[in-house]
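EI: anyone free to look at a 128-residue chain?
SC: sure, send it
EI:
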Amino acid sequence: MIKIDGFRIKNFPALTELGQQLILARCPHCSVDQPSLFQCAKFETSDFQDGSQRTWVAYRCARCGGVTTAGAPKGNNYVKEIYPAPLEVDETLPDKAKDLLEQAIDSSINAPSGAVMLTASSIVTTHH
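SC: here you go
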């Protein structure tokens, strides 16, 4: 599991499929809850030897306009890669710090200064 400053790359559901809409808990760009991520492009790629064939779908967030790309092995609609990868608060953090970071994520769009205060509080919490 990759960790980034108290966050980790979220494991998206194993049965997430490439389709007209990508189902994620949060937009990887704006963190809006239950985003509307609709397909805006679809294409296939392969490596220089015509191996590692993949199908890619680009999804646009109706809220922020950010694009999230999901990929699956060619011939298989189950998502294996998402860029940017969704993040979630690391479960190994102390409960209070974890709660404060989750609140910071939830408030980052509507109250960015509040999100900064919550994040700072989580750091102080982990060091006491």
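EI: Confidence is low (pLDDT under 50) at residues 1-9.
SC: 👍
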